[in-house]
Amino acid sequence: MDRIPILQMGKFLLVTIQVDLYDRLALNLETDLAQMVNKTGARGVLIDISALSIVDSFMGRILGNIGTMSKIMDAETVVVGMQPAVAITLVELGLELRGVSTALNVEKGMQLLSVKVGSFEDHELEEDHDAGSVE
Amino acid sequence: MLVVLNKDSMLIQREQDVVPFRNRVKEYAVKIGMSLVNQTKLITAASELVRNMLKYGNGGSALIEVVSRGRENGIRLTFADKGPGIKDIDLAMKDGFSTGKSLGLGLPGTKRLVSEFDIKSIVGKGTTVTVIKWKNG
């Protein structure tokens, strides 16, 4: 059975989709990612779709599912590299990628993930400072 | 008047047929010089319709035609299945309606992606969907 490889990079998981997906492959990715998030305790998932020439409603739903699923397992999802024609088509189709954030490319996606995951820790620190200043 | 310049058909019976079909549609769209955005819209529409056909109609046949009307060239796709048919087409064409577990964007979303859209369905006999995407449409 074909599988999309999932790479681990520190506290993030990295998925680069290099082939046009048929349904089974997309569904496998969804399941594999949930298991990997659980196994590795990853805080973020980055999905690069720059090689995808189309995203239809099925693929959009899978991406949304991955985002929601990761969220309830305490991981953020960022989808990167969407081609302009794909973005235009998605808008016309009426598909919102709910539950996922997007970034222009892998680099910006990684930054976004770091901010999203790191911000919580920073926030806690800030709160400590605030608490300190009030006293 | 609509002139058919080229004809090609494919049987769609399994989900693995979807990607080769999309590629074939893309080949024809490239051949007539369709812009990348229109190509993407057409292929996305094709993908939605082929998926519907597999999911609700147990597969069927897909016809790809290069057509011309006046100075305009385009691609016409016809999807025919012998599935259960659609009881209420108006309802099926509404945004957000779905009998399956999908987002309900399939038919109305697809209609927005193409230049011309036609659907005919007879309950118990099957459904035929025809779409045209003009090169500059």
Please render the helix and strand layout as text.
The complex is a heterodimer of chains A (135) and B (137).
Chain A: E1 6-9, E2 12-16, H1 23-40, E3 44-48, H2 57-72, E4 76-80, H3 84-93, E5 101-103, H4 106-134
Parallel strand pairs in A: 2-3, 3-4, 4-5
Antiparallel strand pairs in A: 1-2
Chain B: E1 2-12, H1 18-31, H2 36-57, E2 60-69, E3 72-81, H3 89-92, H4 106-113, E4 116-122, E5 126-134
Antiparallel strand pairs in B: 1-2, 2-3, 3-5, 4-5
Helix pairs in contact in B: 1-2, 2-4
What does this structure look like?
The complex is a heterodimer of chains A (135) and B (137). Helices cover 54% and strands 16% of the residues of chain A. Chain A has four helices and five strands. Residues 131-135 of chain A have low confidence and may be disordered. By secondary structure, chain B is α+β, with helices and mostly antiparallel strands. In chain B, a hairpin with a 2-residue loop joins strand 2 (60-69) and strand 3 (72-81). The longest helix of chain B has 22 residues, at 36-57. The chains are: A alpha/beta (135), B alpha+beta (137). The A-B interface holds A 20-24, 53-58, 60-61, 83-86, 88-89, 92-95 and B 15-16, 18-19, 22-23, 26, 36-37, 39-41, 43-44, 47-48, 51, 95, 102-103, 105-106, 108-110, 112-113.
